[in-house]
Amino acid sequence: MNIASRTHGLLLTTCLAALCSLAWAGMAVAQERTTPVAAVKPDANRRQIAQAPMADLRLSLEERKQREETALAFAKKHHPELEKLLRQLRGMDQKEYAKALRELYRVSERLSALESRAPHFYQVQLDLWKANSSATLLAARLQLNPGNEDLRQEFRAALERKLETQKRVNEEELARARERVERLEQNLERLERDGPQMIERQLRQLAPKNRPNS
User: Fold this and answer.
1) Sign of the CA dihedral running 164, 169, 172, 174
2) Is the pLDDT confidence value at 196 over 70?
3) CB-hemisphere CA count at 13 Å for 78?
4) Is the pLDDT of residue 135 over 90?
5) What are the tens digits of pLDDT across the range 42-52?
6) Which pLDDT band holds residue 164 (cuts at 50, 70, 90)?
7) Where are the alpha helices (DSSP H) in 56-207?
């Protein structure tokens, strides 16, 4: 493998691992100008599934396959370029592929849980994940082709979209924090207003006076 190929592979592996992180400010991925990697031969299902790290040994082969399919489906739906890069990574480095899949599966599960609890907040978090992914992908491509002015302008536009999305996330979090503060203030006001009556009521319920002896 020549130096250019090694550099390309290292960039792909490093960026894919970063992309799958849940650190919203630092996600993303990968590369451009690649020679297509030959698909892994389907001679055994075990070769199609990321080699399991120690933490995943408790999972069955079927469970690992299901997680792999879930992670790839999530990437294909929300960041198709990532899904293509993951499939290339599978043929380049099974260990890093397993790591990327594991983290991406966690991302998809956490977002799915958030979707059921707070659909609007889920959407802005998903948008931020996608904006981070897109911007970092363009950054990696620009590193490989620093003289491309069109790519530089595209990267600038992606950074602007990312910034707007970050503002939306912070606005949403601020609104949720204000709602929580309002509820706490109302609760404190109620405790200050009704505290004596609450104490008397609990005394009557939990410590009734002794009945006089007959």
Assistant:
1) negative
2) yes
3) 23
4) no
5) 344 434 444 44
6) very high
7) 61-78, 80-92, 94-117, 119-144, 149-206
Encode burial over 150-189: b for 16+ CB neighbours within 10 A, e otherwise: ebeebbeebeeebeebbebbeebeeeeeeeeeeeeeeeee
pLDDT at position 42:
37
Give the H/E segment covering residue 4.
helix 3-19
pLDDT computed for residue 159 by the predictor: 94
Tokens 């080699």 — which residue? 51
CA distance from start to end of the chain: 101
Angle at 137 between CA 162 and CA 142, to 5 degrees: 105
Q: Two tokens at 152?
A: 């530089």
Given the structure tokens 């960041």, which residue do they identify?
A: 79
Separation of alpha carbons 29 and 135, rounded Å:
9
User: Mean pLDDT across the stretch 135-159?
Assistant: 88
How far is residue 119 from each of residues 20, 75, 76, 88, 196, measured CA to CA in Å? 21, 19, 21, 33, 41
User: Exposure string (b/e) for 124-144, b if CB count within 10 Å is 16 or more?
Assistant: bbbbbbbbbbbbbbbbbbbeb
